[in-house]
Amino acid sequence: MNSFILAVSTMVGTIVGAGIFGIPYVVTISGIAPAVFSFLLLLLVVTLLHLFFGEVCLRTSGKHRLVGYAEIYLGKWGRFFASITLFFVLVGTLLAYLILVGHFGEIILQDFPRISGLFVSVVFSIIALILVFVGRQLIAKIEFFTNIAFVGAIAALVIFALPHLGNLNIPFIGLTGSANLFLPFGVLLFALVGFEAIPEVMSFLRDRKANTKLDNVIVASTLVSGFFLLLFTVIVLLVSGSSSSQDAFSGLVPFLGKGIVWFGATIGIVVIADSFLVIGNYLKNSLRHDFKVPTVPAAILAVGAPLALFLLGIREFIQVISVVGGLIGALEGILIILLFQKAKVKGDRTPEYSIKVPSFVLLFIALLLVGGAAATLLL
User: Fold this and answer.
1) pLDDT digits (tens, 9 = 90+) for 22-55
2) How far apart are CA 373 and CA 185, in angstroms?
3) Domains of the chain, residue spans
4) Which positions ≥6 away from 89 have C-beta within 8 Å?
5) What are the distances in angstroms from CA 74 to CA 60, 289, 333, 346?
């Protein structure tokens, strides 16, 4: 199978995750103009950040993850900062996925009331643990086929929704308060970022000795993901408009019928499984390469940590995704900018591509991420 397609599938599968379901709702609150502006700005910023991190990976010999790169270029304090960032972001993201899996599982199995969302999330975690233990090559192939299923599901949704498309009764600018103008920032950032997939994709291409260039994979994956997010959002809003719900699909029921809820939940499981596997594998490999944890305990920790938080009762999806999304840009984004600058000077190998960016652009991105995160957390 073509290495470029598999690599893009892996990265798209990481990016297109739980965040996609929250976008239509925040557009109805903020208005079209702030949402479109935030989407275009963040699509550009995230593409650059992905390329920055890709160059860091290519300038460094050996296999590392975010924590390893931080120690190499920033020292012990960098390792400590990256460790906190990594586990907070990844475990929080995986926890959000588990919460949605349980919710969507209950919808799919609504005719079997004895099967709870808790049971579905635990079973999902066991299956994910097995796949994460097996590793990257199997996951890449699974990503390819699940992405085909996702594209097919989106196409089916478009066809099913066409007869029900109505007026886009969303205000140009939300009238419920100026603070809501910043509402799309955190959700869109959470939905677009896919840092964790980049070292995995680089290792995948090297293991295959593929001629595919990492920068081409990064740009294609980010743009394709952005297209899917935009398409999904437009279709949902054209059907449900200002009645869009926080999970996207339940708000479609009055317009498309109860069947769309089951259909939407099925799509949700497919999308979440994609991202969960890649991020879980990334966390496992970070524990292996950066902390020298053996493979089996690393896989158990990667999947078990979010499951433990879920079992302890942390199951409020909106709260989890808000906190993770609000900080993901400020913490990971700034860390990657610092690594990018250091790797330009201290990198021990010639990269396959090199991005030249003026210092004021890096400063602008850093200030944007900090300001956006602060606005998101203060809402």
Assistant:
1) 898 888 888 888 899 999 999 999 999 999 999 9
2) 8
3) 3-378
4) 324, 327, 328, 331, 332
5) 13, 17, 15, 10
How far apart are alpha carbons 332 and 195 in whole angstroms? 8
Among 273, 272, 206, 226, which residue's Cα sits nearest to residue 54? Answer: 206
Residue 233 one-letter amino acid: T
* Among 251, 282, 218, residue whose Cα is nearest residue 58: 218
Residue 183 tokens read as 């509402």
35: closest CA among 196, 332, 236, 204? 236
Please state, in angstroms and rounded to a whole number, the distance separating the CA atoms of residues 125 and 7: 24
Would you state the structure tokens that stand for residue 29, as one six-digit string?
């609150």
Q: What is the residue whose two structure tokens read 């949902």? A: 236
Q: What is the pTM of this model?
A: 0.84
DSSP for residue 349: S
Euclidean distance between CA atoms 247 and 72, whole angstroms: 41
Q: In the structure encoding, which two tokens stand for residue 84, read together? A: 């906190």
216-263 confidence digits (pLDDT tens): 999 999 999 999 899 889 888 888 888 888 777 777 777 777 777 787
Distance CA 19, CA 227 (A): 14
Residues 6+ apart with CB under 8 A from 227: none
Domain 3-378 top-level CATH class: mainly alpha
Q: Count H helices, E strands: the chain?
A: 15, 0
**How many other C-beta atoms are found inside a 10 Å radius of the C-beta of residue 134?**
14
